[in-house]
């Protein structure tokens, strides 16, 4: 969509309306297959907007840290796009939607032994194996962490209890990692790559940080708050296309049809939404729908889009 200018008060009013609509939404439940997430207060709700002019507006629990989970895939996709280039990423992982759940093993088989995209579990584990330098867990983790902080515009930290909880229960991901190894789609040590993926999912972020990261992508890869180039404009476009195609897993098509807003969810209850040339949106509310997407977060982002005209497909 073309860049557009929005008055700050207009955005704040729309956020208030979106929050009211989101809080009235019912249904969903916390992710219960990860014990740590099951115990998060399900009434929490936060919403943050970061405009490409650097203005950031927040309400509710937008400054409350939570587990980033699958939204971490966006960050590591950005990292390997920078390190290796978009064509290498497409060849080694892929850039195609699966139309299946985020942890699908069948998707790997149906896609001719390919992880399909960096934004599902298989592709994200493969992405962690591609992070440079090969074979050095500490250096890889340092690169992942630095990339997170560059996009978020502020420090992030590991939720150790979540990391331990995930490490003890990630049986599906272990199966996925070794299947990918068998198909030649893991490019470093299997256990090292899986551990990096589990760790990145266990980082604490806030809705405000997600909004800043999304605004950086929306701003052609340039941080809206300090003017640093974090990604090239071309890579920001490539990353947005990945978010468009698989950000809400098997619900992605329905979401994009209804809202026209590229967005990526995580089972910690977060949503990162990119409106190119306009803003980034971060939302947080733990209860999830059947596909693993925040129920109230979706309502908030959809309401903002309707009131502010954020559909990326409109002229």
Task: Describe this protein with a few key phrases.
single chain; 315 residues; alpha+beta; three-stranded antiparallel beta sheet; 14 helices; 49% helix
What report would you give on this structure?
The chain is built from 14 helices and eight strands. It is an alpha+beta fold and 315 residues long. A hairpin with a 4-residue loop joins strand 6 and strand 7. Helix 3 packs across helix 7 (137-152). The chain is globular and about 55 Å long.
Overall outline: globular
The fraction of residues assigned to DSSP E strands is 5-15%
Based on CA atoms alone, the radius of gyration comes out at 18 Å
Question: Would you tell me the overall average pLDDT?
Answer: 93
Distance between the termini: 6 Å
Classify the secondary structure makeup into a structural class. alpha+beta
Strand order of the largest sheet: 2-1-8-7-6
Percent helix: 40-55%
Task: Kindly state the number of beta strands.
Answer: 8
Major beta-sheet overview: 5 strands, antiparallel
In the predicted model, the low-confidence regions spanning at least 5 consecutive residues are none
What's the order of the H and E elements? HHEEEHHHHHEHHHEHHHEEEH
Number of helices: 14
